[in-house]
Each structure stands twice: as structure tokens, then as C-alpha cells.
Specification:
heterodimer; A: 487 residues; alpha+beta; D-Maltodextrin-Binding Protein, domain 2; 2 domains; five-stranded mixed beta sheet; 41% helix; 16% strand; disordered N terminus; B: 319 residues; mainly alpha; MetI-like fold; two-stranded antiparallel ribbon; flat
Chain lengths: 487, 319
């Protein structure tokens, strides 16, 4: 021990603590900036005459950059940072975005598909576009005239518009034309039925000597979009109770006044309660299980369908639900025009189809909202859509602009009946977005989880959907204020 | 150098820590060496406090709140824990995790010990290096990449594994599509990827066994199984303990391979505790609930690890 004049004693531990603190203080002092400028300090750099406005956009620069460069020509004050967020499916991308936001990372513009549109809007993360749209209505008239109103309605939440959609994918049926021909069938008509589908799927299916299927008639992946959801829709049902929010008249009056397809449009969709175990849903899932038991459908797996696209391309799979995005997938898999074709989903009780659409949304915490809006507007312009990497050359997703879906686009790649993509909307105006309320992320987990239990034959469809319903009810009960109700 | 002792200043005796440290005595040298030691461990201590202890404390605090990050947190007491103990999915995920750990660690240790013993036999040096490298390489791959590739290979209908099994007359195995199979598939994938680490440990442990002890065992007639059981394994027991502790902790935290391969399915058959924690906190934005899962998992890991060390007194032999 060491003793000082005031008889204060210091233990070895205390001394070492002081030493440590002294070292830390010294180290910090060395790192810290001087409180007052040193006499020999370098002269201050002159401030830049005009500071660049930094715009952070959640997009892959490989595809987005042509549009970004176009934007910078008209907005030299801006600089763009592309933030590429990838995931197996949309809900995973949404999880990453939410995590980024939670960690304090703010973007100016995010990309959201239907799966996440209400999720962001419902959390107050997304900025309504109404005022900008009203202000620039004249500029946007051409865009809205080229876009089906159902796609726009899907981007609304509680009366406000949150995104200008630029791509969409309706669940259609893709055929391997060679397998269809080998089965002795021709391209089905648009009004074909579920029974026609079953006959075709069965005819395509080929089994080996051991009874194992070698070529499957129909395959699908376990996710929210696509999946077996189209069968729920054509069977006249939905996973959730559908309602429509009031509001939005300003938009329909301004842009779609004379469009009959806009009649009855609303301020956006509300999915207010689960109805997973609706008899029509049970029937649809039973049909899927039947196809699996008969060896027509392979074991169902999670994901975006990349595995199945390979098998489709190599003649091991006859039919699969997909949207226009598959044109690019199949081209990359080596398929050419004539190797495959597309048709609407068959009629069951109805022929109502489902789609998902996507666009850019502005973060409420963005400091550059006006500039972000200018970018959003440019992104859906004809000029920008023409040069964007998703549509320029290979069609990697379906553009929302009707005028962009033409013979020229599909001349080289096919499909021959490319008109089906927009016919899904034009000829079936009751076609609607996949159910994706603000709680779509946990809902999707439950949907895929119980779907897998039924498809692996561990539960009957009825048992699986009863259990799904119960968990969905619990989930919805935890979020009673999901939608702002009008009083 | 002048010895630094308490000095009398204008206001009486004053203590100078620098002089105290710089004291040119044996005690001074010891103090300087001790200080150096403390400075060396300081970054690690800070790292543990900031990146390990800090999050644990914060998670514990958050587990008593309902918080979705965007709205202010609301104190809810033990609500998250009550929900957790009534949540069948959470229960299943913990059971899956424990089953996984039991199988994966046992298999990993058995296989890597066998391989370590095999590659420690007399053989050409290049062959020995070849085997060591080959078994270690999978460890360098990310779990996600392993999951994707194995997912393709183990596809029930189109996977290459079932194709070759088919040539042997074995019917297609639903590696990833059946609750009865999926956990075993995860164990195989995990062991395949992580075996290299345990293998290196065991090779190191075997090399550290003094050759004179083995020679003595030979002289005493202990060969083959008896030599392994009564000589090698006891001498390898400290390495075994380390492999067990790290293996069990790593296994309890399994996430990437099942998440990429099955996302927890079919149903919840391959859902693990960390997956539930991730889904709750970052997918469903129920941060408080996710934190409560994390706290329970933390306690479980602590208990299992403490138990291992307690039990190790009975079977670990230190030379």
C-alpha cells in the first residue's frame, strides 16, 4: 500500500485502475480533435459552391443505373447511391429493410412489391404520394392511361397512393409445349376449365418402371404469390376476408374517369380477417394434395421457383404458375420461342386471377422527398422504362405499361400468347392482388408452414387449414388497429 | 534511475502513478508487466462488454417490452414470457434444436475422431495434407452457400443424390420434404460442413500425446481398441471437452443451413430456436418477443455449458 500525506491509502487495485484510466484519458486525448485550432493548422478548405444531394435508392445498379444516369442529367445536383437488398422472396427483402430501418439506416426510395406495400404504409414508414400526384397530374396522365387501374388500386392504402407501380406479375400457367404436344394436347383456350387442366397434367406425367414419376405434369413452389393461391382465387375464395377502404376518388376521377375498369375502385384493399379454412380453400388444397399423391406434382419446396425453372427447361416439368418474369428466366435457361407458351389459369368456380405489383416508395424520414418524388416519376416514364435493365432486351418482369407489352418485345423469346399477361387484367377486371395486409410477413410464415404440412401429408388439408386459421386469428387479434377505420 | 516514492509537495505528500510505475525496482518491473498485460486484454474485455455482454443486457431489458421499433416501446412485464411458454412453435423449435445438437455433436465428434485417427496413421506426407485439406475445406464455405448447393443435390425428385440412390434400387428419399427426414438431413449437412474444425482439434490433440506413453502402452501389450480406450482417449479428453463445448454452443445457435434449405419446414420440423428468434424480431418486428426467445436460449446455453464443465471433472484427464 502507498500512503500519502493525508493518510489516504491506495490499494494496488486502485492504483492500477487509476493507471488504466490515465492511459485511457491519454489515448482519448490523443484521438480527440484539439479544442482550439493549433497555430500551424492548415488553412480551411473553401466550402463547395453547391453541395450534392445524396439519394439512396434500394435497387440493383446492374439494372437501375441507366435510369439513374438519365435522372442525373436532369438533376445534376443529385448523386445516387444504389442499395441492393436481396432475398429468397419479397418478405425476406422486407425483413431486411425493416432491420435496416430499425438500425437507423434510412433510404430515400425503397422498392416494394404487393407483399410489403401495406407493411411499410401501415408502419408509417412510407410517405403518401397524393399531393405530388395531384400537383403533377398533367405530367402523369399519360402514365395512368397506360396502366390498368387494378394495379394502381393495389398500391393504395387507406385512401392514399403509396407507389407508382412499374412492374407486375399475374399468376398465369406456363406450358412446356413439347410435353403438351407429346401428351396429345393443343394449346388450351382461355376459357378452359380445371378438369381440362387435370386431364392435361395427368397426360403429361410420365412414370418410370418403378412407378416413380420422371416427368411431372404440374409443379409449384411454396410462397405467398403463385403457390396454390391461384387455385384459391379461381375457386372463388381468398385466404383473408376482402374489404375495400374508402377514399381515393380524387385519383379515379382525375385519371380514370372514362375507364369502365376503374368503376368501383377504392382507396385500397383491406384484408381484415382470416378465412383460411373456408370450404373452397380446403377444396383447393385437397386438389393440390391429390396431384401430389398421384405423382403429378413433385414435392413442394420453398423459394422463388428457380429450381423448377431448370426442370421446366429440361423437359421434366410440364406446367407451372408464373408471371411475365419467367420469360427472362426461361431465356436464361436456354428456352426459345416455341419451346414454351402461356395461358390464363383455368376456370373453376370463377376465373378470377391474382397478381402482385411493385414500385418505389418514399421513406417518411427521407430528407430529400421532393427529389425522391422526381425520381419516382421519371422511373415510370416511357423513356426510363424503355432503358431499364428489367425490360430492355430480356424481359425480367412484366412492365405495367400496356403499350410495352407488344409483339416486338416477345418476338425473339416468346411466349407466343404473350397477350395473356395483360388479358389477365383487361378481360378479368375482378383480378386482384394477393392478400398482403400490414401483417403479411408473419402471415406468410403461417401460410407456407401449414401448406408444407399438408403437402408432406402430415396433416390433412382440413386439419392444416383449421390450424392455420387458428394461428391467423391469434395473429390478427394482436393487431386490432391494422387499418385506420373511418368513424 | 531514482526510486519514485511518495513526494512531499507544496500541499504535502503527493502520489505520482507514473513515477510509481516507472520505479526501478523489482516491484516496479512487476507493475509495468501487469499493466502491459491489462492493456493487452483491454480490447478483448471491451469487445466482450460492448458486443456480447451489452446485447445480452439489452435483450434482457427488451424482453419485458412490446416494441416494433417504429412505435415507442411499451412495458408489458412478463407478457412475452407467458406467451413464449404457451407458444407451441417455440416449444417445437427448442425441441428441434436440442435433438439437432445431440445428433450433430455426437456424429461430428465420432466422425472427426475416426478421421483424425486415420490420417494420423503412417502415410505419405502429401496424402496426409491432402486429407486434412479436403476435410477442412467445407468449413471455409458459408452456411448459406452450403444450404443452397445441398438443397439442389438433395431435391427429392430431381436431386443428384436420389438419382444415384435410384440406380442402386433405393426409392427416392424425401430429404427435405418429410418431417421424419429433414432433421437428419440438417445434421448431415451441418456435420459435413463443420467436421473440419473438430478434425483439426483432434489431430492437434493426437500430436500432443507424448510418444513415450504410446510406446509404453505398446510394451505393456495395449494395442488396438484397448490402446484407444485406455490410453489415447483419456489423453485426448481435454480436446474432447473443448470440442464438445464449442460444438454444443455452435449447434444450439444453428440457423443458416436450415433457414436456407427449408426455412424451418416442412411445417416446423426443422425450425430452430434462433430461427424463431430471428423471425419474431426481424420478420414480424416483435422485438420484445424475439428478445425473450433469445434470453431463454442464452440461459439454456449457459446451463448446458456449466453442466458440461461440472461433469468434465469426472472424465477429463489433464496431464
Amino acid at each position: 500500500m502507498i500512503e500519502n500525506s493525508k493518510n489516504r491509502t491506495y490499494t494496488r487495485r486502485e492504483v492500477l485502475r487509476m493507471a488504466g484510466m490515465s492511459a485511457a484519458v491519454l489515448a482519448l486525448s490523443a484521438c480527440a480533435a484539439p479544442a482550439t485550432p493549433a497555430p500551424e493548422a492548415a488553412p480551411k478548405k473553401p466550402a463547395p459552391s453547391k453541395e450534392k444531394v445524396h439519394l439512396r435508392i434500394q435497387m440493383d445498379p446492374d439494372y437501375e443505373k441507366p435510369v439513374g444516369d438519365l435522372f442525373l442529367k436532369s438533376h445534376p445536383e443529385a448523386e445516387i447511391e444504389y442499395v441492393s437488398v436481396t432475398g429468397i422472396d419479397h418478405e425476406e427483402v422486407a425483413s431486411k429493410i425493416l432491420s435496416m430501418v430499425a438500425a437507423g439506416q434510412i433510404l430515400d426510395l425503397g422498392y416494394a412489391a404487393t407483399e410489403a406495400t401495406q407493411l411499410y404504409a401501415g408502419q408509417g414508414l412510407a410517405e403518401p404520394l397524393d399531393e405530388w400526384v395531384k400537383r403533377d397530374a398533367d405530367e402523369l396522365k399519360e402514365y395512368f392511361a397506360d396502366v390498368h387501374p387494378s394495379l394502381v388500386e393495389a398500391m393504395m392504402w387507406e385512401g392514399s397512393l403509396y407507389e407508382l407501380p412499374f412492374d407486375f406479375n399475374a399468376a398465369n400457367l406456363y406450358f412446356n409445349t413439347k410435353l403438351v404436344a407429346e401428351a396429345g394436347f393443343e394449346h388450351p383456350p382461355q376459357d378452359w376449365t380445371k378438369d381440362d387442366f387435370y386431364k392435361l397434367a395427368k397426360a403429361i406425367t410420365k412414370k418410370g418402371s418403378g412407378g416413380e414419376t420422371e416427368v411431372f405434369g404440374y409443379g409449384w413452389t411454396n410462397r405467398l404469390w403463385g403457390s396454390w393461391m391461384p387455385w384459391i382465387f379461381v375457386n372463388g375464395s381468398n385466404l383473408l376476408v376482402e374489404e375495400r377502404a374508402p377514399g381515393g376518388e380524387w385519383l379515379w376521377e382525375t385519371f380514370y374517369k372514362d375507364d369502365p375498369a376503374a368503376k368501383g375502385r377504392s382507396g385500397g384493399w383491406r384484408w381484415t380477417a382470416p378465412k383460411a379454412n373456408d370450404p373452397a380453400n380446403v377444396e383447393a388444397l385437397e386438389f393440390m394434395v391429390q396431384l401430389y399423391k398421384e405423382g403429378i406434382t413433385p414435392a413442394v419446396e420453398m423459394g422463388g421457383g428457380e429450381t423448377l425453372s431448370g426442370f421446366f427447361g429440361t423437359g421434366k416439368l410440364g406446367m407451372i404458375p408464373a408471371g411475365g418474369f419467367w420469360v427472362g428466366h426461361l431465356k436464361n435457361a436456354g428456352m426459345k420461342r416455341g419451346d414454351y407458351d402461356v395461358q390464363l389459369f383455368p376456370k373453376w368456380k370463377t376465373q378470377r386471377h391474382q397478381f402482385g405489383t411493385a414500385g418505389l416508395w418514399i421513406f417518411t424520414k427521407s430528407k430529400n422527398k421532393d427529389l425522391a418524388w422526381e425520381y419516382s416519376k421519371l422511373r415510370v416514364s416511357k423513356e426510363a422504362m424503355a432503358i431499364h435493365g428489367w425490360y430492355n432486351g430480356t424481359t425480367l418482369t412484366t412492365p405495367v405499361r400496356r403499350s410495352m407489352l407488344n409483339e416486338e418485345r416477345f418476338a425473339e423469346t416468346g411466349p407466343e400468347h404473350w397477350q395473356v399477361f395483360y388479358d389477365t387484367l383487361d378481360k378479368h377486371p375482378d383480378t386482384a392482388p394477393i392478400p398482403a395486409p400490414p401483417v403479411s410477413n408473419p402471415m406468410t410464415t403461417l401460410f407456407t408452414s401449414y401448406t408444407a404440412k399438408a403437402m408432406s401429408l402430415e396433416m390433412t388439408p382440413k386439419e392444416a387449414l383449421d390450424a392455420m386459421q387458428k394461428e391467423l386469428e391469434d395473429l390478427f387479434a394482436r393487431y386490432p388497429d391494422m387499418y385506420k377505420r373511418e368513424t | 534511475m531514482q526510486a519514485a516514492t511518495p513526494m512531499r509537495g507544496s500541499s504535502g505528500w503527493q502520489f505520482s502513478p507514473i513515477a510509481w510505475l516507472a520505479e526501478d525496482t523489482l516491484a516496479g518491473i512487476a507493475r509495468r508487466r501487469a499493466l502491459l498485460g491489462y492493456l493487452f486484454v483491454l480490447p478483448t474485455v471491451l469487445g466482450i462488454l460492448i458486443f456480447t455482454a451489452g446485447p445480452v443486457v439489452v435483450s434482457l431489458g427488451l424482453s419485458f417490452f412490446k416494441w416494433n421499433v417504429f412505435q415507442p416501446a411499451e412495458y408489458v412485464g412478463f407478457v412475452n414470457y407467458r406467451r413464449l411458454f404457451n407458444d407451441l412453435r417455440v416449444f417445437i423449435s427448442f425441441v428441434n434444436t436440442l435433438k439437432f445438437v445431440l445428433l450433430a455433436v455426437a456424429l461430428q465428434i465420432a466422425v472427426s475422431l475416426s478421421i483424425a485417427l486415420a490420417v494420423s496413421q503412417r502415410m505419405a506426407t502429401w496424402l496426409r495434407y491432402y486429407f486434412r485439406t479436403a476435410f477442412f475445406l467445407p468449413l471455409l464455405m458459408s452456411g448459406a452457400a452450403t444450404g443452397v448447393v445441398l438443397g439442389y443435390m438433395l431435391h427429392r425428385e430431381f436431386g443428384v443424390v436420389n438419382y444415384y440412390l435410384g440406380l442402386l434400387g433405393i426409392p427416392r428419399i424425401p430429404w427435405l420434404n418429410s418431417s421424419n427426414w429433414v432433421l437428419y438431413t440438417m445434421v448431415l449437412a451441418y456435420v459435413w460442413q463443420n467436421m473440419g474444425f473438430t478434425l483439426v482439434l483432434f489431430i492437434g490433440g493426437l500430436n500432443n500425446i507424448p510418444p513415450e506413453i504410446l510406446d509404453a502402452a505398446d510394451v505393456d501389450g495395449a494395442t488396438g481398441w484397448r490402446r484407444l480406450w485406455h490410453v489415447i482417449l483419456p489423453l485426448l479428453s481435454p480436446t474432447m471437452l473443448f470440442a464438445l463445448v464449442t460444438g454444443i454452443i455452435g449447434g444450439l445457435q444453428i440457423f443458416d443451413i436450415p433457414y436456407v434449405m427449408t426455412r424451418g419446414g416442412p411445417g416446423d420440423a426443422s425450425r430452430t430456436a434462433v430461427m424463431v428468434m430471428y423471425e419474431s424480431a426481424f420478420k414480424n418486428m416483435e422485438v420484445g418477443y424475439g428478445s425473450s426467445v433469445a434470453v431463454i436460449l442464452f440461459i439454456l446455453i449457459m446451463l448446458v455449458t456449466a453442466m458440461q464443465f461440472w461433469l468434465s471433472k469426472r472424465w477429463v484427464f489433464y496431464q
